[in-house]
Amino acid sequence: MKKLAILAATAAATIFALGAQAAETLKFAHVYEVGTPYHEAALKAAEELEKRTEGRYTMEVFPASSLGKEDALNEGLSLGTVDVIYTGAGFASAVYGPLAISDFPFTLRGYAHWKAYGQSDLFKELSEGYQNASGNSIVALTYYGARHVTANKAIKTPDDMKGLKIRVPNAPAYMLFPQATGANPTPMAFSEVYLALQQGVVDAQENPLPTIKFKKFYEVQSDISLTGHVVNSLVTVISGMRMASLAEEDLATLTEVLQESAAWASQEILSQEESLADWFRSEGLNVHEVDRKPFQEMVEPFLVSEDMPWEPSIYERLQAIPDAE
């Protein structure tokens, strides 16, 4: 009997060990700081994935470019070095150009238009085009906020942009606004911007108000001009290699938790946007209201030109989407 008990205990321990070994860990990488809603949302998704798969899957989150800058993370999806990433639509469009449209200046009118776009047939079609081109799948859209210009002077008219050396992300969508207004766009990795502003390598940068706060750009810039020239998004992308390895039910669970966390982060960013202008003023910054129309008039001819990576009909369909209520 004693021998049988020992054998049973050994078998149970073996089964337990095999079960523990069966748990798989996914890698979720992004370029944003630990204190941002994006990172917190990724952690929420990881917690829910482990809970809903009863520990069969865990997800480790790598923030702040710890697994590479944005270009490298996009490449990592196809190499299998990362499983899930946040990335700007402009970066993802490197493999499917039309997806970039929402990252170009003055293509989205504001949050309500952004929300409606994310629920539209157009966004679904563009996401499918990206998947066909890359093998990877866009499963969620996160509101990143309206981008505004910071500098050591006010930017109230297009003339104020002339000659300004402004940092932009390294994607064509972000270069159009400064190019159209006579500025000097300077692509630079997100992690390098603070030091570049501090040392005068660049004169200005552009980002949403929550990002300006997260990255402390207000410490090295005196003025925020509310140009709102881009209504920005992050797409959450799952590697095609990872998708192929998941059972249908587990892929559905992963998709679900990523969509839920994206909705949570979007609401957080929207809430922060509503109060941050006054917070920056309380910190001693000059925050300027801006008439966007003159800037928009300079950019719009480019948006319908043959140089854009989309057919004019796509731009027209985007403009025709009514704002969400």
UniProtKB/TrEMBL annotation:
It comes from the Bacteria. It holds the Pfam family DctP. Keywords: Signal, Transport. It is found in: Cell envelope. Residues 1-22 form the signal peptide. GO terms for biological process: transmembrane transport. InterPro entries: DctP_fam, TRAP_DctP, TRAP_DctP_sf. One of its GO terms (cellular component) is outer membrane-bounded periplasmic space. NCBIfam families: dctP, TRAP_S1. PANTHER family: PTHR33376, SIALIC ACID-BINDING PERIPLASMIC PROTEIN SIAP. Belongs to the bacterial solute-binding protein 7 family. This is TRAP dicarboxylate transporter subunit DctP.
